[in-house]
Specification:
Layout (H helix, E strand, L loop, with lengths): L1 H40 L11 E9 L5 H4 L1 E9 L5 E10 L2 E7 L8 E6 L2 E3 L3 E4 L4 E8 L12 E10 L5 E9 L3
């Protein structure tokens, strides 16, 4: 009777090792397929660094068309469209062939526009840190002391610059805006 017990135990061990072996073979096949997919098809795109920003919801409005007395309100939303965090360093307004600084992260002077909403962190002396997919809206008032002349119907350019927080690559985006009243 002792011999039959040994045979049963050996069969149980053999059956268990076959199941474990099959599971290991399946796991190794899946890992091999993922590695081949990585090299052939680039399935793991997060391994590459891609920095980018985009501008949206930009507006420049002169209340009543009286820029000399009322100034102009400006608003722009900046989105991190890459897969690395970026530090927004400057936002400039280009009008009448000249660039005017609206926001500078490294400047100790008062900025004409400042963040009013969004997901960002302030990096002292550098600018606003924006994570991938997140946005920040900057808004403020432009006066004649900053931009001497703006008119309703005039086309100006808003230029934003940022630095990739991982690779230190500089990225910029510009958009044309028509001044409205």
């Amino acid at each position: 009777m002792a011999n039959t017990t040994k045979k049963v135990n050996k069969k149980m061990v053999k059956g268990l090792s076959n199941i474990v072996g099959s599971l290991l073979l399946i796991v190794l096949t899946i890992v091999a397929a993922l590695l081949i997919g990585h090299f052939v098809f680039g399935l793991f795109s997060s391994n590459s660094h891609n920095a980018g920003i985009s501008l949206s919801d930009e507006s420049i409005i002169i209340p009543g068309g009286e820029y000399q007395t009322q100034g102009a309100s400006i608003s722009v939303t900046i989105t991190d469209s890459g897969n690395d965090p970026v530090v927004l360093t400057t936002v400039n307004l280009i009008a009448n062939g000249k660039a005017y600084n609206l926001y500078s992260g490294s400047s100790s002077t008062t900025n004409a526009i400042s963040p009013i909403s969004g997901n960002y962190q302030t990096v002292q002396g550098k600018g606003l840190l924006i994570e991938p997919g997140q946005s920040v809206t900057l808004s403020g008032t432009i006066t004649t002391s900053l931009v001497p002349s703006l008119q309703t119907g005039q086309t100006v350019v808003i230029l934003a610059s940022a630095v990739d927080n991982v690779t230190a690559q500089t990225v910029s985006q510009q958009v044309s805006v028509v001044v409205q009243d």
